[in-house]
Amino acid sequence: MRLRSILGTAGTLTGALVLAGTAALVPTQAVVPDGSDTSTAEASYDVLVFTKTAGFRHGSIPKGIAAVRQLGAAHGFTVTATEDAGVFNDADLADYEAVLWLSTTGDVLDAGQQDAFERYIRAGGGYVGVHAASDTEYDWPWYGGLVGAYFNGHPAQQTATIKVNGGSNPATAGLPRRWVRFDEWYNFRNYSEGSVRVLARLDESSYDAGRTAMGDHHPIAWCHPYDGGRAFYTGLGHTDASYSEPEFLDHLLGGIQQVAGVAKFNCGQD
């Protein structure tokens, strides 16, 4: 709830800004919307998982929600999952250290909700985008900058090799340097080359990247500071199986922890 001291009801900075990074670790118990218990010994921060779709809806979304809840229970954060865009207001967003957009698609926020999310990030909030989060809000350039790219097609699902960079980053530190796995591999447009730290690239020689192939420099996961906040995006996570894969869950956990401010945000430019 660190941001509650920063965001007022009108989204303005208050004198409590100095409290932004000093939230105490307070034992807590969270009850998620389906009634399951995600209690932990020390729930140190709060994550909102947002799953609204206005286009294609991924069947893996329920598996993703369950996986994030399990990560929260094991690693000390509470999880709230919602498809209700109404939570994008100053008061509600202030309860969360990170907002995770889980395979959202299409135009999911209205203008006022967009403004509230911009204020949240500018006040130091954290953003995690998973898979189709890049297939979202094409008419909102600020959001495209936050993600770092927009979706530009994909080939058939297949096995590919990921070239993992940034071993000191929490999202990649535990991964093999050549990570072979099965997923749906996104190609991107409007990619913010030079303004993000690329954490992993696809080796296009290891699979058929399709007609929108990106060539030798094909990012698939990255992070960057953005407009006062912290952002992490991974193109992985289309399949149900992703959310029971230990390596992918470590990757996702590292992204959550660093944008929430509980792990080092090692995301300077390449």
TrEMBL record:
Signal peptide range in chain numbering: 1-20
Domain ThuA-like: 47-257
Keyword Ribosomal protein: no
Pfam family, one: ThuA
Keyword field: Signal
Keyword Flavoprotein: no
Transmembrane segments: none
Protein name in UniProt: ThuA domain-containing protein
Originating organism: Nocardioides donggukensis
